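Researcher: Sequence recovery benchmark, item below. Answer with residues only.
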């Protein structure tokens, strides 16, 4: 639109006192109508799916074995029972993710953010969790045999044996099952 010209059709449905305000609003700024996009994730490759904002998405039972998801924002992901065998999840954000019964054997979770994540019954045998943040995470019934737990942040974490890391000297070491 050029200058002062606002198509009358835009203003016809608005009462006279509001027309001047709307005219200034439309001419004085970039007006973009809101839109909603929706699509199925089933047709995407794992790389494409991982680069999409996946908060509150579901992948229950999915197979991500050997995939590189390093640095992705997967906060709120619902992946109960999914397989992440040998996957690269270094620096991934899984805040508030539901990963109950998921399989992370040999996965790389270095510096992963698992704040308030649910890992109830998850298998993390041989996983590398060095520097991972498990603040508020639920590991009830999880197995971590041979996992690298060096530098893990355990604040208010529910340990695999059901105790709380805060009551165990700030760690789940010694309370893994």
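Model:
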């Amino acid at each position: 639109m050029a200058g002062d010209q606002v198509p009358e059709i835009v203003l016809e449905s608005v009462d006279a006192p509001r027309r001047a305000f709307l005219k200034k609003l439309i001419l004085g700024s970039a007006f973009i109508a809101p839109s909603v996009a929706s699509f199925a994730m089933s047709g995407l490759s794992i790389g494409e799916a991982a680069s999409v904002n996946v908060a509150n998405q579901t992948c229950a039972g999915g197979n991500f074995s050997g995939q590189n998801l390093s640095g992705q924002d997967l906060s709120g992901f619902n992946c109960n029972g999914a397989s992440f065998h040998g996957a690269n999840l270094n620096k991934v954000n899984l805040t508030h993710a539901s990963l109950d019964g998921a399989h992370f054997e040999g996965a790389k979770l270095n510096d992963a953010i698992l704040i308030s994540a649910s890992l109830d019954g998850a298998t993390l045998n041989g996983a590398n969790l060095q520097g991972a943040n498990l603040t508020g995470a639920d590991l009830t019934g999880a197995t971590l045999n041979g996992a690298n737990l060096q530098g893990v942040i355990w604040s208010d974490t529910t340990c695999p044996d059901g105790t709380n890391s805060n009551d165990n000297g700030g760690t789940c070491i010694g309370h893994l099952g």
